[in-house]
Amino acid sequence: MKKVPASEQENSMKRSVSAKPMPSPAAPATDPQQAEAEDAMAGLQGDLDRFRDLALRSQADFENYKKRSAREKAEAIKYANSALLERLVSIIDNFELGLAAAKERGEQSPIYSGMILVQKQLSDLLAENGLQPIEAEGKTFDPNLHEAIAHEPSDSPEGTVIRQARRGYRFKDRLLRPARVIVSSGPAKK
């Protein structure tokens, strides 16, 4: 709501009171008290119209504020877990490194089998909560989803992701963490 200084309000009131309607040539002259009363009434009517307009604008502003607040609250609730999930995905990265080391010892090892089960449970839990991994290898480089850390010559067309150094994730419809990738620079130049 716009605040108007008191002196400006007084000047506005004086202008509206002093603005006298022009008598029509056909109308007979009326007494001065009646003319003054009509002028005051016209000024008050103008003020009433202005305040009514101000009230309607204030009401519309308040309705817009309520809608915006409700939308922001719903979005905050929807993405409340993003900070937790962001920390959790770095733990998943370390878990996958441990899984790769256990695989080198032998895929028949009970430790490896147990780690595979834990990884599946963890992946299922994260998927249920809206976290999706970004599959990058073999796809065209997309700066909205990928973070290029190197370019290497390869048989793949230029701009194609040839390796993924770190997996990226989406949380619902937002990017939580971009995938770090190595991008093909095309065939090696001879």
Report on the architecture of this protein.
- There is one protein chain.
- The protein is built from four helices and six strands; from the N terminus they run ααααββββββ.
- The chain is α+β, with helices and mostly antiparallel strands and 190 residues long.
- The chain folds into two domains: 41 residues; 103 residues, Roll (Nucleotide Exchange Factor Grpe, Chain A, domain 2).
- The strands form two sheets. Strands 1-4-5 form a three-stranded antiparallel beta sheet.
- Helix 1 packs across helix 2.
- The longest helix is centred in the first third of the chain and has 47 residues.
- The protein is elongated, with a radius of gyration of 36 Å.
- The two termini are 71 Å apart.
Helix/strand layout:
Layout: H1 6-18, H2 32-78, H3 82-105, H4 110-128, E1 131-134, E2 146-152, E3 161-166, E4 168-171, E5 174-177, E6 179-184
Parallel strand pairs: 2-6
Antiparallel strand pairs: 1-4, 3-6, 4-5
